[in-house]
Amino acid sequence: MIRLQNLTLQRGPQRLLEGAELTLHAGQKVGLIGANGAGKSSLFALLRGELGPDAGDCQLPADWRIAHMRQEIDTLERLAVDYVLDGDLALRRVQAELASAEAAHDGSAVARLHAELDSVDGYSADARARKLLAGLGFSHEQMDRRVGDFSGGWRMRLNLAQALMCPSELLLLDEPTNHLDLDAILWLEDWLKSYPGTLLLISHDRDFLDSVVNHVAHLEQRKLTLYRGGYSAFERARAERLAQQQVAYEKQQAQRAHMEKYIARFKAQATKARQAQSRIKALERLEELAPAHVDSPFDFTFRESDKVSTPLLSLSEGRLGYGDKTVLDKLKLSLAPGARIGLLGPNGAGKSTLIKTLAGELEPLGGRLQRGENLAIGYFAQHQLDALDDQASPLLHLQRIAPAEREQTLRDFLGGFDFRGPRCDEPVLNFSGGEKARLALALIAWEKPNLLLLDEPTNHLDLEMRLALTMALQEFAGAVLVVSHDRHLLKSTTDEFLLVAEGRVVEFEGDLDDYARWLIDYRSRQQPSSAPSPGAADKTDKRAQRQAAAALRQQLAPHKKQADKLEQDLGMLHQQLATLETRLGDSALYEAARKDELRELLAEQSRLKSREGELEEAWLEALETLEALQQQLAATE
C-alpha cells in the first residue's frame, strides 16, 4: 500500500502539504484533484522519489515498479514504435544482453536470455506497442516515423503510450487526456479499467474520472481528503459538507433566481423553447452542484449580442479542405439563433476543418457560404493561445478591443476569469496554458458574439473553470457549435449532434453512449483497410519464423551438450560397475579373512547402482527436452 503519515511537503517558500494523511491500497484507482498550484504534480514527484518529505513519512513497497507519463521528449530520432518500447526497461535490458551474448557466441547465455525474453513477453512486445499506438490514434504509417516528425500534442501521446508500455505496480498519469480526442479517451478509459495495478490520476475531465477511478483524493488547504467513488460522488459528498455554510446557500439562491428569470422570460417563445428546457434541466441539478463549488474563483457570462440574423450562417453544397485536398463534400448546414450543436467524429475526419471554414480561417473549395448581416462570431481554438501578445497584460489585451471602456469595468470583468489585482497587469509571457485559455475566452466573451465556434475549449482548464464555462454556455442566448473531448460539457450545453465522418456531415441520432458504440463499429469496419498488405504480412511472418528458428537452435546447443555429457558419464559408470561385478565373482573374496573387503565392495556397488539410476533419469529427461526442441525447430523451418 501507499501510506502518507503526518506529511509536510514544501517547494521553495510555498507549503503544499502540512500534516497530510493518506492510505491507498494495492489495486485502487484514485483521482487526485485540487486547484492549480495546490501541489498535485509535486506529490507525484514525491512518490517517484524525486522529492523528499520535509516532515513525516511517505511509504511505498520497495519492490513496486512505478510508471509515469513524462512531460518532455529526450530524443527525436527514434522511431515512434521504438520510443514506446523503450518504456519497458526490463525488455530493453534483456535485448541488449542478448545482442552481446550472440556477438560473443555464448550459447549458454543466449539460451538463458531467450528464456528470460520469453518471461518478459518480449516476443509480443512489438505487437503490444503497436496496439497501444493504434488505440491512441496513430496510423500504421505513423508508427514507423521519427518522433521529431510529430507535433507537441502527438509527442505527448507517445509519452502516454510509453508509460502504458512499462510493466508497473503503480501508474502515475498527469493530465493524460489533455492532448487526446474523444476517440482516444474512450479507448484509454477501457485500458485503464483493466489495469491491474494501483493508479493515481490527475485529470480535469469529470466524466473520465467517473469512468475510471473508484476513489478521489482532494488536495485542499494543504490537506488530503479521500472520498469513496468517482468525481460525481466526491462532488455530492463535498456539497453535503459545504451546504451547511451560509455562503453556499446564498450563492445557490442567487444562481437559482437568475435561471428562473431566464426560464420565465423565454419559455413561452418558440425560438427559445429548447434553450429554456436546457436551463430547466440545469436548474434541477443546481441544488447539489452549487455548494460543491462555492469557493470557485470563476464567475462570468458571455455578453449578449445587440443584433442577430436568421439564419446566422448557411452553407450549401459545401466542399471543404486544404489546397487540392477535399476533406468534406456536399455539405449542407444552416445555423439559426439559439442552435446548440456538438460535433462528433473520428480523429482527422474534418471537425476542425469545418469550424475553421465557418470561422473564416479557410475558404470553401466549393459551394456557397452565406453569412448573416449581423453575424458576430466568437472563435476559440488552441492556436489562438499562441497569438496572444506575450508582452501585454490581460488588462491591456482587453483595453485594445474596448478602448473607450472604464478601466474598473474591465478589471471587474477580468476578475470573473480569476485575473485579479496584480495578475491583471502582468505580461502573459509566463502564463500557464490554462491562464492563456482563460484570457482567450475572456476576450471572446467581451465581444458580444451571437455564434460561438469552440474547438476543444476545455484543454488546459481545471475542473472549476470547466464548470464555470459550462454554466456560462448554458446561459448564453446565441448559437453554439462545439468540438470537445469533455463529455460533461457536451451533454450539458448541446441539444443535438452532427457526425463528421467519411467525408460527410450528417445528423447523429443518439447520445454519447450511442456514439461510443458507433466508434467501435467504425473501427471494425476500418480494420481491413488499415491492416498490413498480405505481402507485408507474409514478410513479417517469415522474419518471425526465422527469428524463432534461430532462437530454438541457440537453445538446442546447450541441451544437446548436456545430453551427450550425461550419456558419457553413464557409460563410464557402466564400466565401473562391470569391473566391480568381476571382482565380486571371485570365490576367494567370500573367505572369512576378506569379509571387510567384501563389505566395502558391496557398499561401492550399492552407491554406483544408486548413481546409475540418477544418471539414467537425468539423461532421459534431457533426451525428451532435446526431442521437443527439435520438433519445434522442424515446425518453424
UniProtKB/TrEMBL annotation:
Cited Pfam families: ABC_tran, ABC_tran_Xtn
Record bears the keyword Isomerase: no
Record domain ABC transporter: where: 2-246, 302-527
Record-given protein name: ATP-binding cassette domain-containing protein
Origin: domain of life: Bacteria
SMART domains: AAA
Positions in coiled-coil regions: 549-618
UniProt-annotated stretches for the region Disordered: 526-545
Keywords, alphabetical: ATP-binding, Coiled coil, Nucleotide-binding, Repeat
Biased composition annotated in UniProt, kind: Low complexity: 528-537
Gene Ontology molecular function: ATP binding
